[in-house]
């Protein structure tokens, strides 16, 4: 009789203890962290001259020198400095000399969703 009662108690504990451990009402530490949504910042040309380009990204401006060796592409086509206009989106690659643009790739000004909605009206 004692062994039957002991077996019954062990069986009940074996079933209820593991389920009690996993049935916690607290959320896991991973789910409690707020997920950060990445924010995209456009890099735009602020101003351009024959020998320099100033860009703005996330409210920070940077100026890079332009030399005759600087490769310039506008909308995927080779171009000169005169094709670069303020407001264009831009990507600048810096070479061995810090502060000198090795390559400049520019495209049309960004179109944001609120601007697209205004155009449709």
Highlighted features:
4-stranded mixed sheet, alpha+beta, 121 residues, 7 strands
Q: How do the helices and strands line up, and which of them pair or pack?
A:
Elements: H1 2-22, H2 29-32, E1 43-48, E2 52-57, E3 60-65, E4 71-74, E5 77-78, E6 89-94, E7 101-107, H3 113-120
Parallel strand pairs: 4-7
Antiparallel strand pairs: 1-2, 2-3, 4-5, 6-7
- Molecular shape: rod-shaped
Count up the helices: 3
Task: Give helix and strand order, one letter per element, not per position.
Answer: HHEEEEEEEH
Number of DSSP strand runs: 7
Oligomer: single chain
Q: Largest sheet, order of strands side by side?
A: 5-4-7-6
Distance between the termini: 85 Å
- Using only CA atoms, what is the Rg? 31 Å
What is the SS-derived class? alpha+beta
- The fraction of residues assigned to DSSP E strands is 25-35%
Q: How helical, in percent, are the residues?
A: 25-40%
**What's the pLDDT, averaged over the residues?**
80
- Pick out the low-confidence regions: none
Largest sheet: 4 strands, mixed
Description:
With 121 residues, this protein is of the alpha+beta class. The chain is built from 3 helices and 7 strands, in the order H-H-E-E-E-E-E-E-E-H. The protein has helices at 2-22, 29-32, 113-120; strands at 43-48, 52-57, 60-65, 71-74, 77-78, 89-94, 101-107. It has a 4-stranded mixed β-sheet with strand order 5-4-7-6, with no helix packed on it. The N and C termini lie far apart (85 Å).
